[in-house]
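User: My instructor asked us to take a sequence, write out its structure as tokens, and then describe one feature of it. I'm not sure where to start. Here is the sequence I was given:
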Amino acid sequence: MLRLLLAMTLGAVAGEASAGCNKDLLNVEGWSAKSMAERRVVVSMDLRSTAPKPIRIIEALVYFRDALDGDIGALPVERDAHIPAGGSYTRLMKSAPANFDRLLKLRKQDVETHVCVFAVLYEDGTEETF
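Assistant: Let's start with the prediction itself. The structure tokens for your sequence are:
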């Protein structure tokens, strides 16, 4: 059962390319990964907004791929993140999934990132779904 759930999750992440999303609203400015106890990895992501208005709620994932286009995984942007228009936001993922231990081994130049925003609610109450 666990393997089926894992396969479905990986399929959902791999299916991102076919899903509607905005890849320009948030950009990854930098990231870091640290090893923690019990084989845990902490990932920090610095994101920059290009949104014309402040964001109140967001549905988005940050995707990590290696230089040969192999999937490392995806991490969610905090749903209730308050991100200023044109501002920056840092997401600290304290217990990233096990496959993110690759970030500890890979060179930064061998890791590609992008953000896929599926929906956003701005401070003024307007919504966008991509």
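For the description part of your assignment, you could build on this observation: Confidence is low (pLDDT under 50) at residues 1-15. Try explaining in your own words what that tells you about the chain.
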